[in-house]
Amino acid sequence: MIRIDDLGLFIRSAALGSFTAAALEADLLPGQVAAAIKRLERELDVRLFARTTRSLRLTAEGEQYLPTAHAVLETLKQGKENLRGENATLRGVLQVTAPSDLGRNILLPWLTQFRRQHPELTLRFFLSDQMANLFRDPVDVAIRYGPNEDANYVALPLAPWNQRVLVASPEYVQRCGSPQTPDDLSKHPCLLYLQNGRVYDKWNLGGQTVQVSGPLFSDDADVVRRWSLEGEGIANKSWLDVSADIAAERLLVLLPDYPGEASPLSLVCPHRKQISPAVSQLYTWLRGQFSALERS
């Protein structure tokens, strides 16, 4: 008979690419994880992993079985949550990932407050500007910018009205002037960062795409916001990331007649069956918080 714990260790070993890493995560010995995988392989009569002294990867059979293992555990989890009911106390672990800037400066206090309202809930908060793979990474939901172009995911809108804005500090504008058209950006240092794993150096302003460049680059979008506050150049940021700075006049909006591209914000999860009571209540909470930030 297949053990539920063995399925969980199989999924985590596949995601982490290591029995040792899966063992550390589960507070087990590596040998215990290896034994669990062997039991599962005996029950299925297939080899799930190709092992060498230096690497661990799924076999073709392992790749084929992985979605089934995910589905089994998710069905069991959903059944348990259904027994509790929508109004039951939120318990267990809720794992959320978000972009660095949004996560630190907006979501952090909101999620802290949400967790205080549900003291039996454990919250794990991961910040990264790299897009998480919700089928393999240890997260339940992701807060993401941009349209949902992956039919495998379910995207629930949080701030569909959000868009990008061009900003610089008053000190920078006083020192270097302000661009009058998008083409003028070629004369200014632009602050660059990664977007979906690529350097974001093609900016869409008023329907026109311009190639920009600059001497400063970071894989952390919050660093770019801080550089703009320090007067190091011009940034093209989500309105949500800089709205507080604009309101406090720490940053100025440039080229207001050339609006930036849409950047809707959504809560994303792999499947509607994974919208647990905790996810559902988190979504309702965040949607209310973001509505208060909508630009007039």
UniProtKB/TrEMBL annotation:
InterPro entries from the UniProt entry: LysR-type_TF_proteobact-type, LysR_HTH_N, LysR_subst-bd, WH-like_DNA-bd_sf, WH_DNA-bd_sf
Protein name as it appears in the record: DNA-binding transcriptional regulator, LysR family
Keyword Transmembrane helix belongs to the record: no
Family label: Belongs to the LysR transcriptional regulatory family.
Superkingdom of the organism of origin: Bacteria
UniProtKB keywords: DNA-binding, Transcription, Transcription regulation
PANTHER family per record: HTH-TYPE TRANSCRIPTIONAL REGULATOR, HTH-TYPE TRANSCRIPTIONAL REGULATOR SINR-RELATED
GO molecular-function terms, A-Z: DNA-binding transcription factor activity; sequence-specific DNA binding
A Pfam family the protein falls into: HTH_1
One BP term from GO: DNA-templated transcription
Domain (HTH lysR-type): residue spans on this chain: 2-59
Record flagged with keyword Transcription: yes
